[in-house]
């Protein structure tokens, strides 16, 4: 823009030098020139994008946008940080959680981001991070693409302005997840992880359906209507409960959740709760993709008490989702071989450990016990079949109020009952 | 900018209509016009600020930036959300945590923010949220003021480009905290809370000194050098441990921490960890200011295991900070009256509860027990005196590795030893 304005000034200069005639022309031109000079000053505050970076460098200079991330290698946290450029992450719902998750992954230098939303930016969204008042009226996908590409032009951005709960939207969603042009030799689908950051159960069920069909690992996130609690959950088709294995009451009862909304009433939201949930979601994404730390199967955030419940949910062998049952069968078939491989690897690692103390200065000869042993599997395959939902209660010793619609509140009997009701409804 | 460009087009039109002479003038003008038209298109993407809002409204319309926050009242979380406009929060250090904390408070509609930093924005900061590449080279205070006032022009922003660890910087810091022009009838200092978001111990000790002198409640935050853990801590002079009550090793040993930094080596950082810490910090700020939920005295975040340790630290009666000892004396003097008032209030509330069941539909007559009873105080005041540091270990039943410099790692004996060393060094 500044170059454009400079050219304009030059043109005006030459126009002036040709001196075609009267004094009023000269004064008009002077006036124009001062205007353009003023514009130039204004334009100086306009965005200038940074250039793309070929390779991630660990060099410690102020101009290196990746120095603090590559330092994770020197700190011993991540083996190969630059691998992040190979990964594709799809984010469904670019609202209070999804937009912040997208920004975090963009700043971390993720290879490719796929963004899905059909909504527009409103002033009523300004109490959460990311969107700015000047973006009001833009689609969330356009506004996000603009902001994210300014922040980090190295990230490949693909945005889809669509509703995944429509037939057409779901088909486009599925084909975009299957598309492998970014990394043609990748196994499975075209993305490494799907993050669900939507605000309704219908959309969660659509993500669940797509991921079950594609055997795609995904993470679910949510924030309560009263804005003070939230959760993230890891879903691996066949291995963990899917979203339909223990459906929330509103889903199981077959009620259209849109009919529950009342005119003139909206959910509360806070940038804090959504920022924390987005942070926990992307931190677990990084742990999963870059293989460090422990990925949480479920992590809740109760902000009133700063309490963080955890649990695990196994798949429901009577799940109403056919694709889930397929994935469960596949998982049980490969599980013995997988467990054997893990045990073999652990034994090999144990053999390679020298007989003496692990550390020469470890005078007490204390070492940390590896707790990554596979789940105990019983001899008969029928015993190995999960007999329904098993839940581990949160570790806290005090009463914890969960949001009403959370799967965790339902007891096994409730689920069984709800499933029957749901099946009956579906059979109509 | 668009208005400016429109005027320019009008001027060019009138210039053209006067038709002074040759054809090259006309063609030059046409060329200029097309340039200006192009500029107009470019300018459309330039920021347009929203206008100020007189009162916070709960009306559920897309154009209301506060509808989702005012909904906290209808949800029964906050009694009077609009009170947030009365509060002043000072944020020291506008880096990875402080900038996000400032944005969250701005989007929540805080009354007044005071920002302190002396650093400039670098491309190497782009792996954390908030700052944008086009702000590189600006001071962090200027860049933050620009972004925050665009997001929410209702917030009163005061920024101080200074280093609080210098004599001059500390004096300006102190006088800015004392300034009561925003709310002249406020008790105590001119701010309601100080948030420390700095990255070094010298600055933390400066905040500690200022807050002890002013009897100012503050919150401390920090993120580990390996980017995967962090913490927040509430410090109430006289009532909780101050930062000097159990100083980190590097502070206690009197070593200049700057000498520990090595050329070509930087700390790692992640937008996730910093986003989570900022979220937890501001959530606790909102709980403290708007009086809902429970404010955490200390909350850690170990992201590798998604573990969140909590603890409490009482003041050290042998603290090396004279102002801390003053505050401890004051606190012990008012404590019996304070506890009596709390007990009287609780008894009054218990009396006002009707004899029958609390809820008519509560057939089991179950009610939640109030756990906000004050600490047990013994009859003799000498017994009530804390006899040194008492620590509550984190609630988890597994081994937890704390960052080396955390106060929590030191045992009482270590602290005693370190304090003696520190006093000896100070005496030199």
Please explain how this structure is put together.
Two copies of one chain form a homodimer. Chain A is an alpha/beta fold and 428 residues long. Among the domains of chain A are: 1-18 and 26-45, no CATH class; 87-342, Rossmann fold, CATH 3.40.50. The first copy, chain A, is 39% helix and 9% strand. The first copy, chain A, has helices at residues 2-17, 23-43, 67-74, 98-107, 140-151, 167-178, 201-214, 249-252, 271-290, 322-352, 381-384, 412-427, and strands spanning 88-92, 112-117, 156-161, 193-196, 218-223, 229-235, 298-302. In chain A, strands 3-2-1-4-5-6-7 form a seven-stranded mixed sheet, with helices on both faces. In chain A, α4 (98-107) packs parallel to α5 and α4 packs across α9 (271-290). The longest helix of chain A is centred in the last third of the chain and has 31 residues, at 322-352. Chain A is globular and about 95 Å long. Chain A starts with a helix and ends with a helix. The relative contact order of chain A is 0.09. Chains A and B meet through α1, α2, α3, α4 and α5 of A and α1, α2, α3, α4 and α9 of B. Chains A, B: GO terms for molecular function: ATP binding; metal ion binding; UFM1 activating enzyme activity. Chains A, B: Belongs to the ubiquitin-activating E1 family. UBA5 subfamily.
Question: What key phrases describe this protein's structure?
Answer:
homodimer, alpha/beta, Rossmann fold, 12 helices, 7 strands, globular, UFM1 activating enzyme activity (chains A, B), metal ion binding (chains A, B), nucleotide-binding (chains A, B), ThiF/MoeB/HesA (chains A, B)
């Amino acid at each position: 823009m500044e170059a454009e304005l400079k050219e304009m000034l030059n043109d005006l200069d030459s126009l002036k030098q040709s001196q075609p005639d009267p004094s009023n022309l000269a004064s008009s031109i002077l006036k124009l020139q001062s205007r353009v000079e003023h514009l130039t000053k204004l334009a100086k505050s306009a965005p200038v994008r940074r250039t793309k970076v070929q390779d991630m460098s660990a060099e410690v200079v102020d101009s290196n946008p990746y120095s603090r991330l590559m330092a994770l290698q020197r700190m011993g946290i991540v083996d190969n940080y630059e691998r992040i450029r190979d990964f594709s992450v799809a984010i469904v719902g670019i609202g209070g959680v999804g937009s912040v998750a997208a920004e975090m992954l963009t700043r971390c230098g993720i290879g490719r981001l796929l963004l899905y939303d059909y909504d527009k930016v409103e002033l009523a969204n300004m109490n959460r991070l990311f969107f700015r008042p000047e973006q009001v009226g833009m689609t969330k996908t356009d506004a996000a693409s603009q902001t994210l590409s300014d922040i980090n032009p190295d990230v490949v951005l693909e945005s889809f302005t669509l509703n995944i709960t429509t037939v057409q939207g779901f088909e486009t969603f599925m084909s975009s997840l299957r598309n492998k042009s970014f990394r043609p030799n990748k196994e499975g689908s075209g993305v490494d992880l799907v993050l669900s950051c939507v605000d309704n159960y219908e959309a969660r069920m659509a993500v669940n359906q797509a991921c079950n069909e594609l055997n795609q690992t995904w993470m679910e996130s949510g924030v309560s209507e009263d804005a003070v609690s939230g959760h993230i959950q890891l879903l691996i088709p066949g291995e963990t409960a899917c979203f339909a294995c223990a459906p929330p009451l509103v889903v199981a009862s077959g009620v259209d959740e849109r009919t529950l909304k009342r005119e003139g009433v909206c959910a509360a939201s806070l940038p804090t709760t959504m920022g924390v949930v987005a942070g926990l979601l992307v931190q677990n994404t990084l742990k999963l993709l870059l293989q460090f730390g422990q990925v949480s199967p479920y992590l809740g955030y109760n902000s009133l008490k700063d309490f963080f419940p955890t649990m695990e949910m196994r798949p429901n062998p009577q799940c109403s989702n056919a694709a889930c049952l397929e994935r469960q069968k596949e998982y049980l078939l490969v599980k013995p071989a997988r467990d054997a491989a893990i045990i073999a690897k652990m034994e090999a690692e144990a053999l390679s450990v020298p007989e003496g103390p692990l550390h020469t200065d470890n005078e007490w000869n204390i070492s940390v016990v590896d707790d990554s042993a596979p789940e105990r599997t019983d001899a008969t395959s029928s015993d190995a079949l999960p007999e329904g939902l098993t839940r581990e209660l949160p570790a806290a010793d005090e009463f914890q109020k969960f949001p009403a619609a959370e799967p965790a509140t339902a007891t096994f009997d409730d689920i069984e009952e709800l499933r029957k009701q749901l099946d009956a409804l579906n059979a109509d």
